Request: fold
Amino acid sequence: MSISSEAIQVIDDAGQVVDIQVPAKRIITLAPYLTELVYSAGAGKQLIATVSFSDFPQTATTLPVVGDANGIDIESVMAMKPDLVLSWLSGNGTAITSKLANLGIRVFQSEPQSIDDISSTILRIGKLAGTEQTAANNNAKFKDAIYTLQRKYSRLKRVPVFYQFWDKPIYTIGATHLISRQIELCGGVNIFADQDVLTLNVNIESILNKDPAVIIASGETHARPQWLEQWNDWKSITAVRNNNLYSIPPELIQRHSVRITQGMELICRYINSARD
Reply:
C-alpha cells in the first residue's frame, strides 16, 4: 500500500496547525487526561511515555514518566524521539511547548473546556495517530452516554448545587467550568453559575445565602474529603438538614476524559436524591 504524500493536518486548541506526513507512532502525553484520551482514540499502543498520575487505564502505569505537575524533563522527552507530543496548554504552559517546538518536536496543544471539546480532542488524536475509526466509535459511545443522562435528568425539577474542591480557603466552580455544565445537564443549578469564571474563592456567608440543596465535594484523592463533614455544623443549609452531602473521586469529574460520564452519572443521582 502506498502512503499518500499529503500531510495529515489538524488545528490544536492554541489555533496552531499540527501536521504530520504519516500517522504518529511514538506519542508522549504531558497530562493524565491526555493519556486517557490517547487510549480512547485507539492509539494506546503508540504511547511511549506519560507523566505522573497517568493511572488509567492500568497499562499506562507501566510506561516511562517524563515529568509531573512541577515540570517536564525535556532531555528525557528528546531522548525518546517522539513524533508527537500532546501537551496541556494551561497546565504545562507555553514555555514547554516553545522549547519542544524549537527542538523540532511536533506538539499538539490541548485545552478542553466542554464536553464537545473532549469529543473533538479524541477525534483529532485519532486522526494524527491513524486510528480514526476507533476514535469515532469510542467518541460515539461517549456522546451517547452523555445524551442518555441529559435526556433522563435535564428536564426535571431544578436543584441548587454547591460543588467544592478545596476547603481552606473554600474553592468552587463558576459558569465556565465543565463541572458546572455537567450539573446543568443533570437538572441542577450551580449556585455560583452567575460568576463568569472557571473557579473562585467563596465564603460561608455566600453559601448560606444561596442555600444549596446538594453539596458535592471532590478532593485530591479517591477518599471522601474529611472537610466535607464540617458542613454538618451548618444545619440551616438545606443540603445539610437533608443529609445530601456527597463526594466524587476527582479522576471521574475533574479530568477531561471520557470517564466524566461516570462522574456525571453520580452527579445526576445525587441531585435526583434531593428532589421532592
Notes: Residues 38 and 69 are 19 Å apart (CA to CA). DSSP finds ten helices and 14 strands in the chain.
